[in-house]
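Moderator note: this is an archived Q&A kept for reference. The question asked for a predicted structure of one protein chain; the sequence and the answer are reproduced below.
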Amino acid sequence: MSDLTLGQAIRDLARRLERVRIETPQREARLIAAHALNMTMARLSVSENDLLDEGEVHALNLAVAPRLERRPLSHVLGRRAFYKHEFHVGPDVLDPRPDTETLIRAALERRFERLLDLGTGSGAILLSLLAERPLAQGVGTDLSCAALDVARANTKRLGLTGRVDLIQSDWFAEVTGTYDLIVSNPPYIALDEMETLAPELAFEPRMALTDESDGLSAYRVICSQAGAYLKAGGALMVEIGPTQGAAVAELMQAANLCEIRILPDLDGRDRVVCGGMRGMENGVSLPQSA
């Protein structure tokens, strides 16, 4: 038995995290401790005066080590909360961010029975939407086989296996059929912006972050080809970087999509661009831009 209490160990973790400039060291220390010791947060709170044994101290040190290297907290915990669910994540997929929930909320304003998610990664967007629409079916594509394995695991965890088809595809290359709604959070960080990013992003798949160009390459492909895969009255919705709204809207306009809108996230930054196919056979019309 050590002479260290759980509360002392948590405070020590927080100090170590603070030294490497973690923004919320106390919160993360508690999350890491609960994970390492297989405790609920409630049990953690009532056990802070308990002495730790040597094995528990070792488990805490082992768990915090990758975070001290600035690996994402979700990689340490093996999960990420997004919208209404927790998703398994890791170095093979992009860590889903709260900003992306803007896309979820916009998509749920529409009716859809057939959904396509391009570059699905962990499946967070696709699965969140299907979980809200019990009668809908979805297809998720990704170029990465490892990412598709993560998406399959999340599909199984959420009980959606019978409603999801996951395929390896370079955007639309292997896609067939037409859809009421196409969504995507493609790589949109320009090459010259990569060096300015938070250290955690170095541990996420580069191909999910940047197109190694101006950040618009994926949108050029998606917008130009989406019309061939959208049903009449269907819509395309893509997440964007906060400076890309006008450029992506122009790409949708050039592709003859209509009722184009740029939607803000909760911080007021441009986050989603939407465009529709003419016709009312499926879905509802997109409101006219102001």
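Archived answer notes: The chain is about 35% helix and 20% strand.
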